[in-house]
Predict the structure.
Amino acid sequence: MRLVGERVARPERYVEVKKMEFEDSSLYHYAIFSDSVIAVSVVVNSAAKNAEEPWKHVFHVVTDRMNLAAMQVWFTMRPPYGGAHVEIRALDAFEFLNPFSNDKNRNSKYLSMLDHLRFYLPEMYPKLNKMVLLDDDVVVQKDLTGLWRIELDGKVNGAVEICFGSFHRLGHYLNFSHPLIKERFNTKACAWAYGVNVFDLDAWRRDKCTDHYHYWHNMNENENKTLWKLGTLPPGLITFYSTTKPLDKSWHVLGLGYNPSISMDEINSGAVIHYNGNMKPWLDIALNQFRPFWTKYVDYEMEFVQMCNFGL
Ligand SMILES: *[C@@H]1O[C@H](CO)[C@@H](O)[C@H](O)[C@H]1NC(C)=O
Ligand SMILES: *[C@@H]1O[C@H](CO)[C@@H](O)[C@H](O)[C@H]1NC(C)=O
């Protein structure tokens, strides 16, 4: 609320400017979809601070209408480190999404739309060829430009795989008792994770992945949600089935929001660490031993943050 008050007091400072960098495909582009100012600020701050050439990195943030003003004020008062660029837009700015957000269930639909934006990257950023999608509960610990040099071999999605033994295979996420799933997918195929994904947007357009997503989304609705239940991972596993290239695991270390036994070595050598799970680093229930990797990037000079006082 304090952040919004600042914008109301000085509206002239918060006119949206479209910078050339936002569409310059020679730069490194990231998508972050979130309704949390503090979470986004940590992602951007950590990525910029650990970049060798921060001014070449562009962060495309999309938030809901409620949080737009707060995000704009935050990044105007505390511009990203080293000349990195931030574009902040509201969900409403993407008109082609309106048919999906006009339901009677407006509020919950609207929120889940923020999650579903990840299936529209090429439509949202028509000028870009490649993007890295970062979840808002990650911390970047290394320069990420290497992600852009990875050869995806014509695949659409570069992601870290999460299966081991019989765990985290497609059978865990999709309903293989359903004939539509059974006849199209392999129950033993390895699942991958969202959090750090390299998307080749040209390959995505070529393979019409957005259409695949719509097809399966509608199918699941028609089948009374029996193909999969909740979340974005199951439809992601379907949409990018056989078009995902596994990345080296050090790019994306998972589980800091639920698994106390991740080794410090693994965390320290991770390019990105991910607090997936319920124990988010900004909550009281966070795993204490993992919290400092996140708080390190919280901007305590902002009086607004000091008032929030993250269990420190
Ligand atoms: C869909 O699921 C709901 C709740 O699980 C159930 O009440 C309803 O009968 C189902 N409809 C069809 C067409 O199967
Ligand atoms: C999986 O699909 C089968 C066949 O349509 C259905 O009977 C079953 O209820 C589904 N399971 C879940 C958990 O939706």
